[in-house]
TrEMBL record:
SUPFAM superfamilies: Adenine nucleotide alpha hydrolases-like, Argininosuccinate synthetase, C-terminal domain. It comes from the Bacteria. L-aspartate binds at residues 119, 123-124. The gene is argG. Residues 174-390 form the Arginosuccinate synthase C-terminal domain. This is Argininosuccinate synthase. The lineage of its organism: Bacteria, Bacillati, Actinomycetota, Actinomycetes, Micromonosporales. It comes from Asanoa iriomotensis.
Amino acid sequence: MTERVVLAYSGGLDTSVAIPYLAEKTGAEVIAVAVDVGQGGEDMAVIRQRAIDCGAVESEVVDARDEFAADYCLPAIRANALYMDRYPLVSALSRPLIVKHLVAAARKHGGTIVSHGCTGKGNDQVRFEVGLGALAPDLKVVAPARDFAWTRDKAIAYAEEKGLPIDVTAKSPYSIDQNLWGRAVETGFLEDIWNGPIEDVYSYTANPAEPRDADEVVITFDGGVPVAIDGETVTPFQAVAELNRRAGAQGVGRLDMVEDRLVGIKSREVYEAPGAIALITAHQELEAVTVERDVARFKKSVDQRWAELAYDGLWFSPLKHSLDAFIADTQKHVNGEVRLTLHGGRAVVTGRRSESSLYDFGLATYDTGDTFDQSLAKGFVQLWGLPSRMAAARDARLGGPSA
């Protein structure tokens, strides 16, 4: 019986060439699976037909936009997920979802091999293959660009030789990956980390330096989930899409950073994620109002570790599962509204309110109506500083560091 390869298909040169090449190299039939995670660009029906025209025996298009927003972007909001305190995991969030649908297609079509277009230098090979190992350890993996040293020049020559129905002349100077959550740009002149990005790099965001009126937006959260914008109920997909539009129009969400890749190298990346940055900014502020101090302090370390696990391709790991449970518990009271001013490339919080708020005006005010009993403070300060005073006295007596 002929083996079947399930290919993660984007519709571009590399994965289109992979269809006849994999069939030739492995003797297997190829099933192309394209997953729509809000990346835009070509019509998905066109992409599906192209896979067939390139030799796939089956071609599937999965509309996973709502699923991506609800099951992958929302957990990132609740975790305030920013890798290296900056990057909102644009590519990393989509990979486990794609893996899930590749496994489903393999089961449906009797596939025994899964293939992807990742190189051996990036993070995505790990995300695909570790995810596959967790969900379907019986499936084999073939990665043409990595396993067969497949270069772009070879791909172009092969496409011309086979007469494949794709444009092999158009070549962006950048490598781009985009989805609902944001857009990642690398390579080309950006590989020199002294070169500043030019406006041509950006697509999701307007130039923040251009003059324009500010945009004020109110985001309503329920259990840490954005459920309304300016009072209008939204789905998770609509929340991200609307903030992409409005925050993007103000130049919010541009990032230019050198990040630590999982494989051990440092890589210069330019990102734009207007909706992600606006939503995480608002969510962090609402947590500051509604989450108790020690929980909030501990959650910062959990959020950081959650982001690292997602970045490192460990979405389906036991630790990620356990951290999800902790984060879910912390979100019970993250309810209320946050007002943001979007302008000049920044999302600035200007107001917050919540029925679950731990902020007590009577305790906080310095004016008439203050309910804080200041007479308690003197003893509290003395007891709080007692260990430090005792250590200082000891050091003075023994001639230690403090002396």
